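seq/struct pair 1
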Amino acid sequence: MLDLLAVIPFGAYVVIFLIIPTLVVVIGAFGANPEDGGGATLENIKALGSRQVVDAFVFSISLSAASALIGAVLGALLAYAVATAKPDGLLRRIVTSACAVLAQFGGVTLAFAFYATIGLTGFVTVYLADHFDVNIFSGGVWLFELPGLTLVYTYFQIPLMVIVFLPALDGIRPQWREAAESLGGSTWQYWRLVGGPLLAPAFLGSTLLLFANAFSAYATAAALVSQGSPIVPLQIRGALTSEVLLGQENVGKALALGMVVVVAIVMWLYALLQRRTSRWLG
């Protein structure tokens, strides 16, 4: 009974901040506006097939996939370097502490940091132009497009990868490496036949988590992109706050429902991979 009472606060948190908002989104996505008489309708769902919305989903998925893959590879390499250091050493404490902070460093602050550094009048941009006659935007203002947003998103994806992938690396037992070497296996053979297959589910699961993290990000892109709505969260903002097209609130909920479906699929795959990882990590 006491165990049940202990989880009541968590259950209330889940209901208030997850279940109820999800129900509001689902009901609103299939509901007509009060101005149109209310009731159920599929018009909001049909709006997801428009060219603008499809392009936003494609851009969001491309941005999330690119930043997740880059962040996963670089973050895994950094996590491996940390895992090979002393477990209680200064390097590990510094890197893990920094990653815990930087993984949450986003939104307007991160957008301003990049704009002040490599923006049109950023420090690095001006320095390269004045001293080396190099214009990093000679081919266009890529900072506000897919390459620039990918770079900005990767900034918080790498430390997040270190945090979620480091436990898997710590789960690799030295005895497995020693057994492979005692049988005459080389370092490449160990990682190809033993270490790699064992870490693959954890790596793929962490990559999916990074994808979901980028797919749901809003504030950083909103601060960088002042015109247009290239990603789905900005499309939702436009539907809810537009003063040109009124009565688009339920279209915004339909967009949110589309995001919920994508994230649910990704999290389902993540749970399957984590279940497989736990078989040997434990």
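seq/struct pair 2
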Amino acid sequence: MNDFSTKALTPLGDLPPALIQSGFVTLLHKEVKRFYKVAFQTVGAPVLTAVLYLLIFGHILENSPKIYGYGYSAFLIPGLIMMSVLQNSFANTSSSIIQSKITGNLVFVLLAPLSHVEMFCAYICAAMIRGLVVGMGVFLVTIGFASVPFEAFIWIIIFATLASALLSAMGLVAGIWADKFDQLAAAQNFVVTPLTMLSGVFYSIHSLPPFWQKVSHFNPFFYMIDGFRYGFFGQSDVSPWQSFFVLLFAFIVVTFICLKLLKSGYKLRH
């Protein structure tokens, strides 16, 4: 490939040609540009939604008893950040795969000299970038509404990264499984959204009756929210180490499923 065609295909600056022509880098670049081109919808809209949640719930419940020694708005902000990260990480991989399957352009990815591991890493990394960018946007917009501490910053990074990776992988599985947008919407509306909303985003599980507290511990999204919130307040409903190992185990399992599906070509090569 000559210099002209390389520059035309990959506007990636002065990276070495071998890296520019890497299948992983090319697919990652394509996936990032896919959501960047419509950033008003993929980044701006989720940030606005989170702000509306904060304005409505924060205004109504601000005079409720303090949680962890902070007002309700401060308590709510980490939950909204993580909720935005999770939903957008899932949406990026799932929508990319289902769109490619329906429009038929997935064949160009499958024909490229890409291993299933490279495909997995590219899709996951792009979705993580979108999820974390949206989360940062929510943080920057909402931080002016309440003072939020940073008691354990490293846990914030760990849980934001691991949770976005897990939901990206789940979105990849959903996109491969779904044959049409209705099926994908069902996974989003009847699985991801309810589990997110019932994970403690808007409340501490200690405010629930004992039975529902126990039920909440079977929701993996609870550990994402609770561990992430620990990074801000230094307090949580369960140990951050417990939350970390639950998420790590879940990520390993979902990653294994993703790699098996990509390697076999399940619902991709037909």
